[in-house]
Each structure stands twice: as structure tokens, then as C-alpha cells.
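Proteins fold reproducibly. Next comes a concrete instance:

***
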Amino acid sequence: MKDHEAPFEDTMPTPAEIAGWRWRAIEAANSAPDLSPLARRVLTALLCMMDNDTRECFPSELRIAETLGVHEVSVKKAKAELRDRHRLIHWTNPGGPRHQSHYIFNWERLIRLSDEAKDRGKVAVASRRAKKTANGSQAATMGTQRNGSRMTTLEAASDNSIVAVSLPHSSQTAPQGSRFATPIVAARLPEQPLRTASIRTASSEHDVRSSQRAAAATPPVAALMLPISSVPVAGQEEALERPVRSPPRHPACCFPAIEKEFGQSKPIMDLIRGLSFDHQSKIAKALATKGLEAARIAIEEAVGKQA
């Protein structure tokens, strides 16, 4: 076979078919197996550079390289891969080896690759859908088996004679390969009247006993309340209405500076000792900052307020 002859039939699409064929060929470039990333890009670029009217494609390797942002040597390698390994394109050089190449596309193979990619997608979607359906039906069946085998700790019969006791799951008692099998053992209860309340499980009895112990340990609210007779009645309203403004009075003066200044005057010291701690503090502050006269004024005001 000569170099200018294509290894496949040159099937040229009509102007009405060119848009659909080009799109399917681009799908094949994106989904064809074993194509290198650069070969996919070069094939897509060639398909986009094909003329719509004449269906000819002859871009230079430099133009392809600049369009894709790669080196010309990389474009040569990608072209060789598309032609020699995958037989997707072919080119000729009518003007000689150093002239522009005229590219020919293997449309039949490109369209077949596009159809195969679509078929793979459809098969994958159908397989997943069938798997989900099978999993859903299996889960429903397993749920039915689980609900059918699950029992309460004790279920009393109507005559209070026979109960079904469900034992915990064990690998020794359950049949091999059965995950939800629960052995049922029949037992006979002693004769006793049937209670109205349902039989409690071990966890509920523990909760009830805990709440009973807590209630027994907590004294009733009435025991925490004082009897009415223990509250003094006389002067009770006055004690409640009187605001607590300061601590109780001190029998002596709390500040040595006041004792030093007014200690020789017994009447003044008696007045000061009868004042509250706050008033004594104000007098001491006035004495330290403003002097003796300010302290006397503070004493008079304190006595007037407290009287």
C-alpha cells in the first residue's frame, strides 16, 4: 500500500450528515479506549478544524500545536498513534513531505466507537438499576424475616400458662448460614392470676426500682416547709418591709483615726459608736481627705440620717 492511500474506505459525509457525524466522532474521541490524552485532544482538534462545505481538513502541525498549547513533536507522536495504532485517521501530502497534510477520517470506525460507548453506558445503568432492585427486594425479605422472628422478652398467653422466651442470638444455637434465626423455648408459668399490667422487661423493672428508691430518699415538699406557728407574727410586716441597707451596728468605732481625733470627747464618740459601719467609713474618709471640719459635718449628717 502506498503512502498516499488510506487503509480504510474514504466515506465522505454529505453536508446534511456532517454535523451529526462530527459530533459522534467527537464522542468517540472522548470515549475510545486505550487513547492517550494528547491523542484525544489532537483528534478532537482535527474534527473541529474540518471545513463544513468541502469536508476537507488540512491544518498544519504548527497550528495544531499552538491551538492545543503543546510542542510540534508531541503533535507528530499523537498523529502517529491515531494512524498506526488505532487507524482512526490518515493523511497525505499532495505537495510533498514539507507541505500541509490533508487528513482523512475513518468515519465508520469512529461512529462504531461512539455506539459502543453508548451501549456500555446503557449496560452499566441497567446493571446498577437491577442491582438496586435486587438489594431492595432482599432487604424487604430480610426485614420480614427479622420482624417475624423478633419477640419480646416475655409474651404471656391468654390463659397465663404458656410463654414464649426468645433467647439472645448465638452462633452455637442458630443454624449455620442463618443470621436472624432466634430459638424459641416454651416454658410453663406457675398458676397465678393474670395481672392487668403487661409484664415488664428487665430494663423497665430496673428503671421503676430506681425511680422508687429516688422517691423514697427525697423528703416530701411538706416536710421542708416550716409550720405557720414557728414564724413570729408580731412585727412580721415591719421586718419584711424594712430594707436592709447596711450591716448591723458595731459597738465600737472601727477606725483608729476617728478614735485618735475624737477620743477625748465622750459624747461625740458615743454618737460615732452608735453609727453603722458605712457611716463610720464616710466619716473616716472625710477626716483623711478634707480635715476635721468635714468630719464633724459628716458626723452630723450621719446622725441625722440614722435618727
Summary: Confidence is low (pLDDT under 50) at residues 150-175, 180-187, 196-202, 221-231. Residues 155-188 form one domain.
